[in-house]
């Protein structure tokens, strides 16, 4: 544990659940502003569904979000985003996200 600088009692991550208006604001910013700012972006994989219509993606740099002040970032960190849907299958989930112009890879 010493080599990775992880210490007992220090936070190593967090989980946030967004619902309602905040969820929709985040989702819109994610697909219209943040995701297109990913380096060499060519679309998101349409294969990242979990079998129940929920979609997960990883982001290597939190700085794709314009709200983050780059000068205040001590180091670049990644994050995982899971979009939980009411779809019953991956096909339904894919159709739902596609209806919102989710940027799937062609």
TrEMBL record:
It holds the Pfam family Ribosomal_L5_C. Gene3D superfamilies: 3.30.1440.10. GO terms for biological process: translation. GO terms for cellular component: ribonucleoprotein complex; ribosome. Keywords: Ribonucleoprotein, Ribosomal protein, RNA-binding, rRNA-binding, tRNA-binding. GO terms for molecular function: rRNA binding; structural constituent of ribosome; tRNA binding. PANTHER family: 60S RIBOSOMAL PROTEIN L11-RELATED. This is Large ribosomal subunit protein uL5. It comes from Escherichia coli.
């Amino acid at each position: 544990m010493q080599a990775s600088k992880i210490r007992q009692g220090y936070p190593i991550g967090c989980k946030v659940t967004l619902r309602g208006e905040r969820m929709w604001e985040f989702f819109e910013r994610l697909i219209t502003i943040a995701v297109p700012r990913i380096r060499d972006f060519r679309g998101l994989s349409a294969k990242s569904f979990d079998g129940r219509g929920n979609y997960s993606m990883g982001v290597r740099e939190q700085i794709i979000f314009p709200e983050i002040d780059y000068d205040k970032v001590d180091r670049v960190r990644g994050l995982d985003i899971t979009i939980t849907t009411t779809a019953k299958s991956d096909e339904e989930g894919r159709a739902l996200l596609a209806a919102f112009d989710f940027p799937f890879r062609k």
